[in-house]
Model the fold of this input.
Amino acid sequence: MMLQLTEEDDETLEPDPSDTNLNTPIPEEPQHHLSFNAMKGTSGMGIIRFTGTIDNIEVQVLVDGGSSDTYLQPRIAQFLKVPIEPTQKLQVLVGNGESLTVEGMVRKLHVQVQGHELVVPAYLLPVAGADLILGSSWLATLGPHIADYAHLTLKFYQQGKFITLQGDTQVSPQQAQLHQLRRMQQTNSIAQCFTLQLVESVSSQDIWSDLPADMEPELAILLHTY
Done:
């Protein structure tokens, strides 16, 4: 038996392109979320409320580390006529499992809080808890900071200055003045209006006392019934 040996060129096997694609990780889109407390404006751990101004218009500011981004009420942006940029339809997941759709973005929003100016990008989102919500993305820009939720203070450095913001304590509802009602009407802040009227209760004894004492019982019962 004879064997014939032949020399062949060495060939380098290239990996299958499909296998390479399978091993390539798919980048995940950042998830936008809003805490349930921020959505409803309720007080809770991790939330500090401030009163600020945008173009001399008073707004309620909520600092919430449980929310991913900064969100501004669309009606406030429309009323102040700030530049609004269109965005893709981002979905923001709320703490109760529902989702809201972003309606645009303000690239540079100038907010005055206790004599200090904050410049933040903000998504337009129809939240009910406050006019402006500063989330964890804004807190990350502060660098090292101290948030004291027991005493409602936020301390941080900005442009070489040590800044302390004092949060607002929970206040009871107060009667709105005429100029406040006008502002709420202009900014479409009124969801529903109700009229309350005090009605005094009338007992049956008061009804019988108005009738003459010598009236026939049958007639008195008839008048009382109708």
Residues 83 and 106 are 6 Å apart (CA to CA). The chain is about 20% helix and 30% strand. Residues 32-168 form a domain with the Cathepsin D, subunit A; domain 1 fold (CATH 2.40.70.10). The chain has a mean pLDDT of 78.
